[in-house]
Amino acid sequence: MSKVIICANQKGGVAKTTTTVNLGIGLAREGKKVLVIDNDPQGSLTEALGYQEPDSLEITLAQIMDWVLNEEPFDITAGILHHEEGIDLMPANIELSGVETSLVGIMSSETVLKEYIDMLGNKYDYIIVDCSPNLGQLTLNALVAADEIIIPVQAAYLPIKGLEQLLKTISRVKRKMNPKLHIMGILLTMVDYRTNYANEITEVLYQVYGSSIHIFENVIPMSVRAAETPAEGVSIYKHDAKGKVAIAYEELTKEVISHE
Ligand SMILES: Nc1ncnc2c1ncn2[C@@H]1O[C@H](COP(=O)(O)OP(=O)(O)OP(=O)(O)O)[C@@H](O)[C@H]1O
C-alpha cells in the first residue's frame, strides 16, 4: 500500500504547499511513484504545479469526493494530471469548498478521502496531501487517511498556541478514528537564523515539544528563490538546483525515505 503523508497546520502560509511540491518531487527523483493531492479549495498546490487556472479543470478532487460520497463508479485514473518532473497530481479548485460544506452532518463523511486513497491500491509508493489552513472537514479527512503527518511551522512567529489545537485534534483522531496516525515531525520552514526570533522559536519548540515530538533537525531556510517557484510551476530542484532550499528539501526527502 502507499504511504500517506499529509502536510498539515491550520496556520496559513507556513509552507505546506511548498513542502508538498518539493518532498513529492524529491521522492520522485529518488525513483518513487508519487501522487500529490490538493486538499485545499484555494488550489495553491494545483497552481504551484503549473495549472494556473484551477477553476477551468473539469475533474478535480471535488468531483472525486462527490463520486465516492454517492457511491458512483468511476475510472480510478480520472482527473489525475502528470507533472513534467515525474509526479502525479490530483488537483483542486474552489468547488472543493462546496463539497466541504456538503460533508457536514453526513454519516462517515470523514472517511471519503481515505476511501479514494484505498481505491488507488498500490499504484503509488507515496501519496502526499496538502491540507487547507484550517481544521475543518477536509483536514479531518486527511487526518483519517494519513499514516504520517509533517507539521510545517514558520520560524517567524510564536507558533505554540496554534500547535496545541492541532496536536489535540491529531490525538483525538488517533484515538477515535485512525490508530496508526503518527507525527513524523515538526518541520521548521522559512528559517532565517540572522534574526533572533528564529533562534528563540527553535529553542522554545525544542523545550516544549522536543521530548514528545520529533523535530526535523534539517530546517528549510528562507530564500527568495523558493518564493519564486510557484509562479514557475516547477520544483526548487528545477528553479534553483544548487540553492540552500533545494539542498534542505533533498535532506528532508532522504529522512522521509529512511522512515520506510
Ligand atoms: N523557504 C522559503 N523561503 C521563502 N519563501 C517561501 C519559502 N517556502 C515558502 N515560501 C513562500 O511563502 C508563501 C507561503 O508558502 P506556502 O504557500 O507553501 O504555504 P501554505 O502553508 O501552503 O499556505 P496556505 O496555508 O495558504 O495553504 C508562498 O508565497 C511561498 O512561495
Ordered list of secondary-structure elements with their pairings:
Elements (H helix, E strand, L loop, with lengths): L2 E5 L8 H14 L4 E6 L4 H5 L12 H9 L11 E2 L5 E3 L4 H9 L8 H8 L6 E6 L5 H9 L2 E7 L5 H17 L5 E8 L6 H14 L14 H9 L3 H4 L4 H15 L2
Parallel strand pairs: 1-5, 1-6, 2-4, 2-5, 6-7
Antiparallel strand pairs: 3-4
The structure holds adenosine-5'-triphosphate (ATP).
Notes on the structure:
It is globular and about 55 Å long. Helix content is 43%, strand content 14%. The chain has a single domain (3-258), classed as 3-Layer(aba) Sandwich (Rossmann fold). By secondary structure, it is of the alpha/beta class. It has a seven-stranded mixed sheet, with helices on both faces. The site of adenosine-5'-triphosphate (ATP) has 20 residues, from helix 1 and helix 9.
Distance between the termini: 12 Å
Structural class: alpha/beta
Number of helices: 11
Query: Any guess at the CATH architecture?
Result: 3-Layer(aba) Sandwich
CATH topology: Rossmann fold
Poorly predicted regions are none
Sheet having the most strands? 7 strands, mixed
CATH homologous superfamily grouping: P-loop containing nucleotide triphosphate hydrolases
Q: Give the strand order of the largest sheet, numbering strands 1, 2, ... along the chain.
A: 3-4-2-5-1-6-7
pLDDT average, as an integer?
A: 94
Calculate Rg over CA atoms.
17 Å
- Written as H for each helix and E for each strand, in order along the chain, the element string is EHEHHEEHHEHEHEHHHH
Q: How many β-strand stretches?
A: 7
Strand fraction equals 5-15%
Range of helix content: 40-55%
Bound molecules: adenosine-5'-triphosphate
Domain unit count: 1
CATH class: Alpha Beta
Approximate shape: globular
Protein name: Sporulation initiation inhibitor protein Soj
Subunit structure: Dimerizes in the presence of ATP but not ADP; ATP-binding is required for double-stranded (ds)DNA-binding. Interacts with DnaA.
InterPro entries: AAA_dom (IPR025669), DNA_Partitioning_ATPase (IPR050678), P-loop_NTPase (IPR027417)
Pfam family, one: AAA_31
